[in-house]
Amino acid sequence: MKVKEIIEILEAEVICGEDLSEKEVHTACGSDMMSDVLAYVKDQAVLLSGLVNNQVVRTAEMMDMKCIVFVRGKKPDESMIELANASDMVLLSTKKPMFTACGLLYSHGLRGGNG
Amino acid sequence: MSNSVKLHYDVSGEDFTRAGEASGNIKKVLKEIGCDADLIRNVSIATYEAEINMVIHANGGVVDVDIFPDHIDIVLADQGPGIKDVELAMKEGYSTAPDNVRSLGFGAGMGLPNIKKYADEMKIETEVGVGTTIRLKFYIK
Ligand SMILES: Nc1ncnc2c1ncn2[C@@H]1O[C@H](COP(=O)(O)OP(=O)(O)OP(=O)(O)O)[C@@H](O)[C@H]1O
Ligand SMILES: [Mg+2]
């Protein structure tokens, strides 16, 4: 699916990277533990997280992810937005909790990959 | 060899929000040089894990990168507490990270094994009370 479909499905607010919303993504993962994302995730393009700090964006950057969705209405700060812009990443914020957000995306065809 | 590209970074142990700056910059340089995407990701993940370790376990340190035509050497050196039992530290799930580190999203005990997975060669030199040096090598195919 396209990033812009994620925005619609999760009724998400676009924090940055609106111009990148035509990008195709096929797989996602949800975690608040960056250690696990770094160790177990492979080729997932979308990260859903309830954790908000610079290292969430850094972790996604190192793994070449395209989009981060902050759940439960969490909002990234200025320095996270700067980091995301520098690596062409879309940041979204949804009011939905983690389980619901993942479930909605899954039911619309986004997959977890083998990670 | 004099035609290698050398990079040097000081990593602050005071500021967790800045952790990853060195790794991010190394990634940018490798992209500019035109390295293969898989290689860049391997280097990025391994270096980032080691940089985070330096910040959360050793109060910062230095990173030196040497890019040759056929391989990349990365050395991460700190003057932290050192690692008492390296074999144990290399085990998945072993972590001495305190709860505040876990609330920042780290401390699952996955970093060192993950570095080993992504680097082509990994050497740990460490002495309790003196510090830790991690040497990584990545082959350019
Ligand atoms: N540079 C270092 N200086 C001192 N101790 C270290 C250093 N790097 C790792 N260690 C020790 O080795 C343990 C295992 O490291 P590892 O990176 O595998 O896990 P972690 O950092 O605790 O958690 P994670 O990497 O999953 O976030 C650490 O908990 C720490 O005790
Ligand atoms: Mg670690």
Descriptive account of the structure:
The complex is a heterodimer of chains A (115) and B (141). Chain A has 115 residues and is an alpha/beta fold. Chain A has helices at residues 3-9, 34-40, 54-62, 78-86, 98-107; strands at 13-16, 28-30, 46-49, 67-70, 90-93. Chain A has a single domain (3-107), classed as HprK N-terminal domain-like (Udp-n-acetylmuramoylalanyl-d-glutamate--2,6- Diaminopimelate Ligase, Chain: A, domain 1). Chain A contains five helices and five strands, in the order H-E-E-H-E-H-E-H-E-H. Chain B is of the alpha+beta class and 141 residues long. Chain B has one domain (5-139): Heat Shock Protein 90. Chain B contains five helices and five strands. Chain B has a five-stranded antiparallel sheet with strand order 1-2-3-5-4, with helices on one face. In chain B, helix 1 (21-33) runs antiparallel to helix 2 (37-58). Chain B is globular. The relative contact order of chain B is 0.20. The A-B interface holds A 32-36, 38-39, 51, 53-56, 58-59, 61-64, 79, 83, 87 and B 16-20, 23-24, 27, 37, 41, 44-45, 48-49, 52, 104-111, 113-114. The complex binds adenosine-5'-triphosphate and magnesium ion (MG). Adenosine-5'-triphosphate (ATP) binds at residues 49, 53-54, 57-58, 78, 80-83, 89, 94-97, 106-112, 132 of chain B.
Write the layout of secondary structure elements.
The complex is a heterodimer of chains A (115) and B (141).
Chain A: H1 3-9, E1 13-16, E2 28-30, H2 34-40, E3 46-49, H3 54-62, E4 67-70, H4 78-86, E5 90-93, H5 98-107
Parallel strand pairs in A: 2-3, 3-4, 4-5
Antiparallel strand pairs in A: 1-5
Helix pairs in contact in A: 3-4
Chain B: E1 5-12, H1 21-33, H2 37-58, E2 60-67, E3 71-78, H3 86-89, H4 99-102, H5 111-118, E4 121-127, E5 131-139
Antiparallel strand pairs in B: 1-2, 2-3, 3-5, 4-5
Helix pairs in contact in B: 1-2, 2-5
The complex binds adenosine-5'-triphosphate and magnesium ion.
